[in-house]
């Protein structure tokens, strides 16, 4: 992927990408299955392909997210704060799902 970005997309290190922070999927992120040692059916079979088919699944995904639970005092606080972040926001207007105070 890095070669495609540089050779086709014209990416120049330190010029076109000036990000100061990165994440694992910035250029590529590959996750493989260990089909032979897994107790589960392979993902491509669950998706309707044959067991002997060779497939690739491509998705668009967000970067990993940091969840800061400073100020949370109970397990319930941490659970509510973390689950709210999973849904896209650590702050909600509901008093039962408010972020932990610091």
Walk me through the topology.
Layout: H1 2-7, H2 43-46, H3 75-86
How big a fraction of the residues is strand? under 5%
* N-to-C span: 41 Å
Order of helices and strands: HHH
Report helical residue fraction. 10-25%
What composes the largest sheet?
none
Mean pLDDT: 76
- Quick one: overall form? flat
Poorly predicted residue ranges: 90-97
Assembly of the depicted chains:
single chain
Number of helices: 3
What structural class is derived from the secondary structure elements?
A: mainly alpha
Radius of gyration: 20 Å
The counted number of beta strands is: 0
Task: Explain what the structure shows.
The protein has a domain at 65-102. It is flat and about 50 Å long. The longest helix has 12 residues, at 75-86. The chain has 102 residues and is an all-alpha fold. Helix content is 22%, strand content 0%.
Task: Summarize the entry for a quick read.
The protein is flat, with a radius of gyration of 20 Å. The protein has helices at residues 2-7, 43-46, 75-86. The protein has a domain at 65-102.
């Amino acid at each position: 992927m890095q070669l495609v970005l540089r050779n086709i997309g014209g990416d120049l290190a330190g010029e076109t990408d000036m990000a100061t922070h990165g994440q694992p999927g910035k250029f590529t992120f590959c996750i493989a299955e260990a089909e032979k040692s897994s107790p589960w059916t392979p993902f491509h079979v669950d998706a309707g392909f044959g067991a002997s088919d060779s497939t690739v699944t491509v998705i668009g995904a967000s970067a990993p997210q940091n969840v800061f639970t400073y100020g949370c005092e109970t397990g319930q606080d941490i659970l509510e704060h973390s689950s709210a972040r999973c849904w896209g926001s650590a702050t909600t207007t509901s008093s039962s799902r408010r972020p932990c105070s610091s």
